[in-house]
Amino acid sequence: MKPLPPYARLLKLAVVEVDGSQLFIMPFHPGVVGRPGYLHGGAIAGLLEFAAFEALAAAIDDGDVVMKPVTVTVDYMRGGTEALGDTFAAATIERLGNRIANVEAVAWQADRSKPIAAAQINFLLERP
Question: What does the pLDDT average to over 30-48?
Answer without folding.
Answer: 94
